C-alpha cells in the first residue's frame, strides 16, 4: 500500500469519498506524521497480503476489520489479538471479514489492519471533542473499560501548555495508579504531558478534525504509545 505524502492528502481523500470517519490506518498515519507515538497499522486487502505484512512486522500481531460502517469492531468479532503464524493470519483474515459481513451485510469492508502487539502498560485515554461554546476541548483519563465505568477524566480548552497537561494528569482520581500503585513501576508522566501537548498542537494544525480518540494509550516507565486511534472530520462547510 502506497503511503500518502501528507495529512492533508489523507483528509482530502476522505472528503472526496464522502467520508467523515477516517480508518484506523489513516488516523494513525496522520498522527504519526505529526510525531505522535502510535502503533503503526497497515491495511491488507487479501489474506496473503496480511500474512506478508505480519511477517515484516514480526509476530505476534493484532488484526482489526477496516470498514466505515463498522465502528465497534470488537463487538462484532472484528478484532483478533496475539496471532502468531502466517497460516493463523490468513485464517484470521477470513474470519474477521466474514464476521463483518455477518454483522452488516451492506458494509463495505476495505480489508483488515495489521499491527504488532504492543507491550501492555497502564491504560489511559486521551482525545478531543468539540464544545459548542469553547471549541475544541482536550480530555485525559484512565483508559480501557475504566473510562466508561469510573468517568475519571480531566478537560482543558485547546490550546494547552505543558503546565496544563501536568495539571490534567495529576487531577484525575486514578493518578496513584500512574505513580506506581502497590510496587508497580511509575508511568512516564513527562511522556504523557508531551503527548497531550502534541495532541493540542495537532488539533490546532488540523481544524477539519471534529473528534479524536486515542484509547487505549499504554503508559510505560519510559514512554507511551497509542494502540488504537479514531478521528472524525467535521462536516464540510
Describe the protein in words.
This protein has 237 residues and is an alpha+beta fold. It folds into two domains: 7-116, ATP-grasp fold, A domain (Dna Ligase, domain 1), CATH 3.30.1490.20; 122-233, D-amino Acid Aminotransferase, Chain A, domain 1. It has eight helices and ten strands. The protein has helices at 7-16, 24-33, 47-57, 86-103, 146-150, 162-171, 175-180, 189-205, and strands spanning 42-44, 61-66, 79-83, 111-116, 122-131, 135-142, 153-157, 209-219, 224-226, 229-233. Strands 5, 6, 7, 8, 9 and 10 form a six-stranded antiparallel β-sheet that branches. It has a four-stranded antiparallel β-sheet with strand order 1-4-2-3, covered by helices on one side. β5 and β6 (135-142) form a beta hairpin. α3 (47-57) packs across α4 (86-103) and α6 crosses α8 (189-205). It is globular. The model is unreliable at 1-5 (pLDDT under 50).
CATH fold title of the largest domain: D-amino Acid Aminotransferase, Chain A, domain 1
Q: Indicate the CATH architecture of the largest domain.
A: 2-Layer Sandwich
In whole angstroms, the N-to-C terminal distance is: 31 Å
List low-confidence stretches. Answer: 1-5
Name the CATH class of the largest domain: Alpha Beta
Query: Overall pLDDT, averaged?
Result: 92
Please identify the oligomeric state.
single chain
The number of E-state strands comes to: 10
The portion of residues forming beta strands comes to 25-35%
Element order: H for helix, E for strand: HHEHEEHEEEHEHHHEEE
Structurally, the number of domains stands at 2
Rg to the nearest angstrom? 18 Å
Q: Superfamily at the CATH H level of the largest domain?
A: ATP-grasp fold, B domain
State the secondary-structure class: alpha+beta
Helix content: 25-40%
